[in-house]
Amino acid sequence: MFGMAANVGEEEATVSLVDVLEEDEELENEASAVLGGSDSEKCSYPEGYVKRQALYACNTCTPKGGEPAGICLACSYKCHEGHDLFELYTKRNFRCDCGNDKFGEMECKLYADKEKVNSGNKYSHNFFGLYCTCDRPYPDPEDEAPDEMIQCIVCEDWFHGRHLGCVVPDCVELQEMICESCMNKTAFLWNYAAHIAVPPMTKVSPCKGEEDVKVEVENDEEEKKINNEKPKSSADEKVQVNGTSACKRKHQEEAEGSSEEGCRLREMKASGWSRTLQGAVFWPSAWRTKLCTCTDCKVLYTDAGVSFLLDEMDTVLAYENKGKSTMQAEQAGGAEGRDPLMSALNNLNRVQQLEIIHGYNDMKTELKDFLQRFAAEGKVVTPEDIRHFFEQQQSRKRRRANTGQYYCS
Question: Which molecular-function annotations from GO does this UniProt entry contain (predicted)?
Answer without folding.
Answer: ubiquitin protein ligase activity; zinc ion binding
